[in-house]
Amino acid sequence: MKNVLVIGAGPAGMAAAIGAARAGAKVTLLEGENVPGKKLLLTGNGSCNLTNLDDDCAERYGSMGPGAAAFAAPATESFGPRDVCRFFEELGMPLTVRDGLVYPASRSARTVLDVLLAELKRLKVTVKCSEKIREIRRTDVFEASTGSWTYRGDALILCAGSKACPRTGSDGSGYDLAAQAGLGVTDVMPALTALVPEDPAIIRACAGVRCQAALSLLDAEGKVFPAGEKVCPDEIGELQIARDGISGIAVFQLSRYAARILAGGGRPVLVLDLFPQYTEDWVGRVTYNWKERYLSEFNISYTGSEKFAPGKRFGLFPSFSLGWRVTEEPWMKW
Q: Distance between CA 98 and CA 269 in Å, rounded?
């Protein structure tokens, strides 16, 4: 039986430990915090968006630069959104779907953590908390050292997370561990994160507002993308305004583009439409009436709706009608 070490007890680490244990390995899951899944409990504002129903989700990584989609494809094709849904349903957790996004039916991240911990316990995975790994070495086996203790395994899975939330353990130390293991580490940028304006005072009067909004992002100086043009299709979704920044699904989707602009020395500009259901429509009408007998009317309107796909939300809609008042004909008045 192989001994497998998994570093990091977030959702990725717990899922990896479950997969290895199901394959017959003896698994030790090492977590630097005092409990597993701290950051998991914060996801989706506590409701935990597990995945989406986009079967071509690898293409969403295209915004991260050349080759990003191809890099992500093997992972998303071998374990895609449908597999994620099946994984949690097999753990006994009902799911619900809202606007193509998949959540636990309870809409609580705690449910997700509970079913993962229950499966780890069923599979007899050893979970060690408050064990911050400081060093990885590879001899005839893999060695993971905390400074006071060294764990050894035939294989090692690194799931230490990024540097997104240090208070939950995601402090960026996983990058150093990856480099120690001989893996290449590229420059990292924030993604799926809140955005903070240059002057937070401009939004403080709206702090606490949560609404549906349409968001556009521009590269004002053209350092990374063409100047003044939208860098990606508009995002429509929930917007949450706090005292010092904005968040929500739509903001998270755009944040990676903003990060690229900032990394390139540019200045991202975010345009908010807080009433996407209202549009600037116009309607034209021409009528003709001959002796109250023969009638005609031509209408043309230009309108749109946020319910349609970006780039296809507006269109021209012509209509034409004819009328004949038979009662006004002379031969009807005999």
A: 29
Please identify which residue in the block is written with the tokens 């929500």. 248
C-alpha span between 8 and 170 (Å, rounded): 9
CA distance 149 to 63: 42
Tell me which H or E stretch contains 202.
Answer: helix 201-204
Phi/psi of residue 29, nearest 5 degrees: -105, 120
pLDDT in tens, the chain (334 residues): 899 999 999 999 999 999 999 999 999 999 999 999 999 998 877 889 899 887 677 666 665 666 777 888 888 888 888 999 999 999 999 999 988 889 999 999 999 999 999 999 999 999 999 999 999 998 899 999 998 899 999 999 999 988 888 888 888 899 999 999 888 888 888 888 889 998 988 888 888 888 888 899 999 888 888 887 788 778 888 889 998 899 988 898 899 889 889 988 888 999 888 877 766 677 788 888 888 888 888 888 877 765 666 667 778 888 889 888 888 888 777 6
Q: What spatial distance separates the first Cα and last Cα of the chain, rounded to whole Å?
A: 105
Q: How far apart, in whole angstroms, are the C-alpha atoms of residue 205 and residue 102?
A: 33
